[in-house]
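User: Good morning. I'm curious how nicotinate mononucleotide would be positioned relative to this chain. Could you predict the structure with it bound?
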Amino acid sequence: MKIAIFGGSFDPVHIAHETIVEVALKNLDIDKLIVVPTYLNPFKTSFYLEPKFRFELLKKVFLPYPNVEICDYEIKNDKVSYTYETVSYIKSLYKPSKVYFIIGEDNVRNLHKWYKIEELKREVEFVVATRVGFNQNIEDFKILDINIDISSTNLREQIDLKFVPKAIQEDILNLQKGRKIE
Ligand SMILES: Nc1ncnc2c1ncn2[C@@H]1O[C@H](COP(=O)(O)OP(=O)(O)OP(=O)(O)O)[C@@H](O)[C@H]1O
Ligand SMILES: O=C(O)c1ccc[n+]([C@@H]2O[C@H](COP(=O)([O-])O)[C@@H](O)[C@H]2O)c1
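Assistant: Good morning! Here's the predicted structure, ligand included:
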């Protein structure tokens, strides 16, 4: 089995994430794509939406995709998880013959600082989703061509429903009513 892992904070999930998954399913030779929400990214100090809620939003968004699974491994750890550990766990579960790990172009800059990065590079092939405004040297990577100028930060600051997947628009509007999001 060949798999791709797409890890992220998804705080909250937006349409660029959904598009990355669609393009990956189309362009990578994979049987399954596993989305792994973080409890907390090792380089970040806090999250905004509760991990369980970010997980539920991802479930709703990717329900129509039969080959997409949302993995609660990091959330259940209830603490910072390193990608190297998550990949080891997923590998022990599925014994895949090939593992891709998808990151956005913004994450290329600090990739060399990831925990056990040299070992991790031997375990996975990194795939980079291009990101508007980030011009990293990505010629050594497999590329997913994404051209959507949105971030979770933008959405937390100001909701614009055109960047929110249809399946969760109501949940996001409810957050706005409760003033959890502006
Ligand atoms: N618009 C985008 N284009 C390409 N890649 C993206 C885009 N948005 C997110 N990604 C990538 O998807 C993964 C998960 O993203 P993440 O949940 O951190 O969203 P984000 O929009 O970058 O959030 P934040 O604004 O909170 O940093 C990361 O590897 C990130 O680089
Ligand atoms: O393992 C690490 O050292 C490491 C350091 C920074 C980020 N990551 C992972 O990179 C992925 C993208 O994170 P984010 O917050 O940009 O969505 C997510 O799966 C993080 O756990 C992993």
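The helical segments are 15-27, 51-62, 73-77, 83-94, 117-123, 152-157, 169-177. Residues 27 and 144 are 8 Å apart (CA to CA).
Let me know if you'd like a different ligand tried.
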